[in-house]
Automatic annotation (TrEMBL):
GO CC field: cytosolic small ribosomal subunit
Gene Ontology biological process terms from the UniProt entry: maturation of SSU-rRNA from tricistronic rRNA transcript (SSU-rRNA, 5.8S rRNA, LSU-rRNA); translation
Name under which the protein is recorded: 30S ribosomal protein S9
Similarity remark: Belongs to the universal ribosomal protein uS9 family.
Protein species of origin: Candidatus Naiadarchaeum limnaeum
């Protein structure tokens, strides 16, 4: 028997990050590739409405020269359509910054919008007991 030696291949660099907005959650995987961007296995050009695509493409337009050879795959769930778009935006921005490890890219994103990497922490206010809405109170009659 002859011993076969296995060639060790260098591990491919993959970054997985999370973005959130209200109840919406987005997980993005960034890796070297051909430059494709997919959200829930759908190309970005076909995903959602024009408004949602505009929200998602903001970080891509700011650093388009740096991401020509990156594949970005995003999975999103929960919340509404616009909340998911905002969560995807945060996840893509974080993924690009973590993958490239470039301070210039980070500064470009933060100078555009300081919440693009940290996300929006606001949440829906919960309903209170014996009320139909968070702050609505039944009108009181004195006569």
């Amino acid at each position: 028997m002859t011993a076969q030696t296995k060639q060790k291949t260098p591990k491919e660099k993959i970054v997985v990050v999370v973005g959130k907005k209200k109840k919406a959650l987005a997980r993005a995987r960034v890796r070297a590739g051909k430059g494709s961007i997919r959200i829930n296995s759908v190309p970005l050009s076909q995903w959602g409405s024009y408004y949602e695509r505009t929200i998602v493409s903001e970080p891509l337009l700011l650093v388009q020269d740096s991401i020509r050879d990156l594949d970005i795959d995003v999975w999103t769930e929960g919340g509404g359509k616009v909340g998911q778009a905002a969560a995807v935006r945060v996840a893509i921005a974080r993924g690009i910054v973590d993958f490239l490890r470039n301070s210039e890219v980070r500064k470009a994103l933060i100078s555009y919008d300081d919440k693009i990497l940290s996300g929006d922490a606001r949440q829906r206010e919960p309903n209170k007991p014996n009320r139909s809405a968070p702050r609505a109170v039944r009108q009181k009659s004195y006569r």
